[in-house]
Specification:
Keywords: Signal. The structure is a single chain. This protein is α+β, with helices and mostly antiparallel strands and 282 residues long. The chain folds into two domains: 61 residues; 169 residues, Reverse transcriptase/Diguanylate cyclase domain (Alpha-Beta Plaits, 2-Layer Sandwich), CATH 3.30.70.270. The chain is built from six helices and five strands. The chain has a five-stranded mixed β-sheet with strand order 2-3-1-4-5, with helices on both faces. A hairpin with a 2-residue loop joins strand 2 and strand 3. Helix 3 crosses helix 4.
Length: 282
């Protein structure tokens, strides 16, 4: 090839090179934009799947009727809290007790008979939400079955658990009728008529395992139920709770939320201004 032709070919190639580079750069930008779009779509899909997973977990752990934790979550949490209390007991001088309250609503069947199942269930849900407000954020309240609830109180000694039990009795007794029908004439201060019978058990005093601890709380609940409800009971170490003396002159039942001088029957003993659920317990 002659020199002029070679120079002409090189000039053509030199002119085409910038255009080819521009096309390549444009293709790269388009590919990068497409890749960025796909990455954004993938990230959005991952966020959506994560939200759906969290919702499924919450649904699997919540009771559909009352909205509080269900039996499965209670069992898992109880096992975790027992293991945590054991580790704390082994590693520290001061043990960290775990208290359990088994709560049964007394009078729910009568509520169903008077107001119907749908309205009674609405009141049960409202009451469960109110009970959840009366405990700390680190505590756990769940529906144990039927009209029974279980409350787990970490780092709570018997005295502190007794205070919570009294507060829960007060809350149930003060619960008002809800979900009224449109145009229904009724006293807005009318109570639901429910009361709470509560059994109290403490780790390690009443048992070192979940099943033993729950049996102890159930025995204490049976004592509270036999006393007519609206009270709590704790099984003394080494035996069942003692029976209260009978007769009009008998002293108040152990754990009975009874009015003191100057108090009405709707105010818990040694409590003024309504219950509070904040702060540490003994």
């Amino acid at each position: 090839m002659s020199t002029p032709l070679l120079l002409q070919a090189l000039a053509v190639l030199g002119a085409a090179a910038p255009a080819a580079a521009g096309v390549t750069a444009l293709r790269r930008r388009r590919a990068g934009a497409a890749l960025g779009g796909r990455e954004a779509e993938l990230l959005a899909k991952i966020a959506e799947l994560t939200a759906e997973r969290d919702e499924l977990r919450r649904t699997a752990s919540c009771d559909p009727l009352t909205g509080v934790w269900n039996y499965r979550h209670l069992q898992l949490t109880l096992d975790q809290e027992i293991e945590r209390a054991r580790r704390a007991e082994a590693s520290t001088v001061d043990p960290r007790p775990l208290s359990v309250l088994m709560v049964e609503l007394v009078g729910f069947d009568a509520l169903v008979a008077e107001h119907g199942r749908a309205r009674a269930n609405a009141m049960l849900r409202d009451l469960a939400q109110r009970l959840a407000v009366e405990i700390r954020s680190c505590d756990t309240l769940g529906r144990y079955g039927g009209e029974e609830f279980l409350v787990l109180l970490p780092d709570t000694a018997p005295d502190g658990a007794a205070q919570v039990a009294e507060r829960l009795c007060w809350t149930v007794r003060r619960h008002r009728l809800t979900d009224r029908h449109p145009g229904e004439a009724a006293d807005p201060e009318e109570r639901s008529g429910l009361t709470a019978a509560i059994g109290l058990a403490v780790l390690p005093r009443d048992g070192g395992h979940a099943a033993v601890l729950l049996r102890a709380a159930d025995r204490a609940l049976a004592e509270a139920r036999a006393a007519g409800g609206d009270c709590w009971r704790a099984v003394p170490p080494g035996g069942p709770a003692p029976e209260a003396p009978a007769g009009p002159d008998a002293s108040p039942l152990p754990g009975k939320v009874s009015p003191g001088p100057g108090e009405d029957t709707l105010t818990p003993h040694a409590t003024t201004g309504g219950p509070r659920a904040t702060g540490d317990r003994p």
